[in-house]
Amino acid sequence: MTVSVAPPSAGTRPRVGLLVVGILLIATNLRAALTSVGPVLDDVRADLGLTATAAGVLTALPLLAFAGFSPLAPLVARRLGLERTIGLALAVLAAGIVLRSVPVTGAIWVGTVALGAAIAGFNVLLPSLVKRDFPDRVAQLSGSYSATQSIVAAVASGVAVPIAGDSPGGWRIALGCWVGLTVVAAAFWLPQLRAHRSFAAASLAGAAHRSPWRSAIGWQVTLFMGLQSLVFYVMVAWLPTIEQSHGVTATTAGWHLFGYLIAAVAANLAAPHLMRRLSDHRLVALLCAALILIGVGGLLLAPGAAVVWLISAGFGAGLSLVLCLSLFSLRAVDHQQAAALSGMAQSIGYLLAASGPVLIGALRDASGGWTLPLTVLCVVIAVMGGFAFQSGRDRVIG
């Protein structure tokens, strides 16, 4: 993909080029360490003796880390600066990926928390970096690194099983190999450590606008964000296992997850055009929920046509994410209130998302099959659709 930025001066052009490359390489690390787990989760369970509930907790840990460490990232950046904090996060991510893959008791849990904490830092600080250094190209560069992370995430899910092979411990290689991307990103980020600049966070203390925490609209957007994230991460964590229970091979199930994620990428790109055509965002919200419900309901009722259902669910997931991110601005009166709404929605949203894989795993253990978990997931999607519809109304937080 091509990313153009505002023309720099001759003296800053090399740094700007390295910065753009560094941002895109960091983006390759934002989701691959997460989406590579689902296709080999059965191997992890068998090798470590985990129950389905414990496996659900394992897949939820990065999301809990997102919720817990996101508020800390700006505090660290105030002391170290953006560049150095991102460099520190790269080091923590590399350590977490390696630790998660070594055959040491408990290492998989500690490593998973570490990589989740690192990615939480990227999630919070990369938008700040883009806004600071590319104020006229925020949407363009943000879209580029979002698409990059989604594409690599899809590839990671597709190649996990082939990399793991038939060895009982092959899953360790399939999860650990992604440290290579982190090392490459760190190498390109080194010049930025010498370009240290202080990080000053904008304070919302003086904002006279209503807090989203005390607003019905704020909670509607937040619950829409949280529930659509819950459904997405349940699919990423459990889809390969669900398909394998219906006789699909592990390799095929991994590539089906790849297709689901690619459909989401396509929806990411199509969403802005669709939102312009359907100016009533309530229609876009209903379309999101309908596509996801068709996909999950299809897996429940006719699993033999899984590819069709996954394309539908993936497109709905990608569309709902873009709508959520847009609502942070559309439902706020200014950028300060938008930041407050975004912080609220992402902190609560990741907590909700983290509960999804655990809940589905527990329901699978309790019922011995996937009918009850998928039925409950359909109910969650219907509730999500209600909050999405409310969020789509054309009004702002007072």
TrEMBL record:
Membrane-spanning residues: 48-73, 85-102, 108-126, 147-165, 171-190, 217-241, 253-271, 283-301, 307-328, 340-363, 369-389
Protein name, as recorded: MFS transporter
Superkingdom, natural source: Bacteria
Keywords in alphabetical order: Membrane, Transmembrane, Transmembrane helix
Alphabetized Gene3D superfamilies for the sequence: MFS general substrate transporter like domains
Pfam families attached to this UniProt entry: MFS_1
Xref: InterPro entries: MFS, MFS_Cyanate_Porter, MFS_trans_sf
Coiled coil: none
